[in-house]
Amino acid sequence: MGDTVNNEGAQKRSFFKGLKAEFHKIVWPDKDTVTKQTIAVVSASIALGLVIAIIDLIIKFGLSFIL
């Protein structure tokens, strides 16, 4: 059979070099942007929760009225 060369160590180093290079390409948002986006997500979640709760109450009262 043929001889195989163990390149496992070189492959791991190459992988981590590539990973490090990709992490350097990431553009992280500043604190102001993160704050605004967080407020938007929390507000939308609360609004959607209220809409679902109101629809649930309407359906509940409607069914109790019918039955």
TrEMBL record:
The chain crosses the membrane at residues 38-59. The keyword Cytoplasm does not apply. It is a single-pass membrane protein. The keyword Heme does not apply. Keywords: Cell membrane, Membrane, Protein transport, Translocation, Transmembrane, Transmembrane helix, Transport. Pfam families: SecE. It is found in: Cell membrane; Membrane. Component of the Sec protein translocase complex. Heterotrimer consisting of SecY, SecE and SecG subunits. The heterotrimers can form oligomers, although 1 heterotrimer is thought to be able to translocate proteins. Interacts with the ribosome. Interacts with SecDF, and other proteins may be involved. Interacts with SecA. NCBIfam families: secE_bact (TIGR00964). Belongs to the SecE/SEC61-gamma family. Essential subunit of the Sec protein translocation channel SecYEG. Clamps together the 2 halves of SecY. May contact the channel plug during translocation. HAMAP family: SecE (MF_00422). This is Protein translocase subunit SecE. The lineage of its organism: Bacteria, Bacillati, Bacillota, Clostridia, Lachnospirales.
